[in-house]
Every structure is written in C-alpha cells, then in structure tokens.
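Hi there, hope your week has been kind to you so far. Do you reckon you could talk me through the fold, stretch by stretch? I've dropped the whole record in just underneath, so have a look:
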Amino acid sequence: MYFFLYSYNMFSRKRLYYSKMKDEKYYFHQSPVSLCKDIISNIAFSDDDILLEPFAGEKNFYDNFPNELEKHYTEIEEGLDFRDFDYEGIKPTTIITNPPFKLGTKNAFFDIMLFFAKITSIKKMYILCNDYCLGTLTPNRMVKLNENNLFVNKLTTVNIKKWRGRYYIIEFGRKHNPSYDYYIGNYE
C-alpha cells in the first residue's frame, strides 16, 4: 500500500510516495466507534444533507452516518485525497471528521479548516480534535475563517482514555455565534 507524505505546503500538490502498511500507530489514532456514534446522534440532520468524512481512516464516522442520507468519504490510504473530491459536483453540506493535525512536519489543522471554509456548499462541520489543534485557532486565524463565513458555533469537551486526554468537538457553521468571541491583539 502507498502512503502519501506531503511537502511543507500541503496545497502545493507535491507528494513523496513511499510504501508502508497500516501499523499500530495508525490503528491507535482511529476515532472510537462509540464516540462517533454519540457525536452523530447529537446532530440534527436535514433530509437534504450530503455528508462527507474527508479523513475517514477506518470509516468510524462514515459507517455510522444515517443510512437515509447521501454520504461520501475520502481516505488517503485508499488513494482518495480530500483535495481531489468533487465538491462542485456533489456539494456536500456537512463535514464530520477527525482530521490529522499534522501533514508531513507542518501543523495543518488551520489550513484544513480554511480549505473547507472556502467551499460554500458546506454549511456545518463537526471536527474532533485535540488541544493542540484547538490552540491553532488564534484570533487572527479566526478572523480569516470568519471572513470566509465560517464560525465556531459550539465546543464540546470529551475524554478519550486511550489518547490520554481531553479532546474537543468543534462545531462550525455559517452563522455568527456571539457566544464564541476573541480579542485581536497581543497583551503584555
């Protein structure tokens, strides 16, 4: 099986290929099925929602999406890169995923959020992430997301014992939420 390693700029499309099998670390970082089910059960879906899990891994979210809704996934392990998905043709409305916080050596969380912010068909995103990812959403970066009409609507804290810590479900939407705010500037 071929993995893709990305160059420093994940959007440059330059890829290095190398052969590697799924290892223990890969399986360790899969989202717990029970958590995926709980997250999905707390989402108010519309009949016309089109769901996408862009970092599917073992498809723990995808396999638990409601059967009556149109659903899609991408997974680099299967040669399906999230950047190559047909966003214009399929027009997904909802993203539910646990994205990698690093691609190659670069923290890619913000770049991934900004990528999805620019796809106007996406109305809601439910992102499972760690404190490292959450910490990358600096005030200046939040301004960039907001300029692309993407806002944090809700933050839910969860415990994932195997990962030894607190994790967060960030719900993004297209409507401003005055309960989630930030100050621009640096303080001494």
